[in-house]
Amino acid sequence: MTGLPPLRDALEAHGLSADKRFGQHFLLDLNVTRKIARLAGPFNGDVVIEVGPGPGGLTRALLETDAGAVIAVEKDRRFIPLLEELAADNVGRLRVVEGDALKVAETDLLDGRSAHLVSNLPYNVGTPLLIKWLTGPWRPRSLTLMFQKEVADRVAARPGTGTYGRLSVISQSVCIARVVMDLPARAFTPPPKVASAVVRLDPHAEPPSPAVLAALEQVTAAAFGQRRKMLRSSLKALGGAELCHAAGISPDARAEVIDVAGFLKLAQATLA
N or C: which end of the chain has fewer CB within 10 A? Predict the structure, then answer.
């Protein structure tokens, strides 16, 4: 990438800046983006999908790794010419796709190949995108994603903590989730009002079936929607105490103390 200007110069040349409507905050420090790429790897020649690359700071770092190819999905068409310049400098290794990641069918991009997900996610769609990837038909080999720190902590939270909730259970039922890097607001341009963190999620060898995942979403929505109530009350519409007894869970417990395995038993009991 010796023919490319520094990111700040490229942004200025194209007259580009972050758009608050898309929750954009750019990572322009290549030392930071290289560290994220290392935490996400190794890729061993697999494809990497990056969502919301913006000006391509993380994209540049990913292209320096052992990824076989990078597919960058960008909704903001202002950045497409800048990303195409990067693609031209990396012929055959970078494919730029203009589209909304919430609507994109990843399998259509991959031609049967497996892929990892690596992204500095836009704050305003980070959680919906994670739920899509965790519960949808396509399964990535790994996910290394940046969220605002509050969301990252919820993804990796353990039972009995204040941040443990529905997102924790769904994420950890499908993957091993770890916060692997914290970033202060000053690392971004423009700086957001909150700190950020990178979460790495590695799928379990045998994730729950689609039916169990759908039931888990229903159970966790009810349980954490009324998290201060005992499960006999919060899960009343799903069977209440009877459902809890069938799953071997105390109906007097509250959602925040039930571990992921317990919630999976509750989900399976709704299908029995």
Answer: C
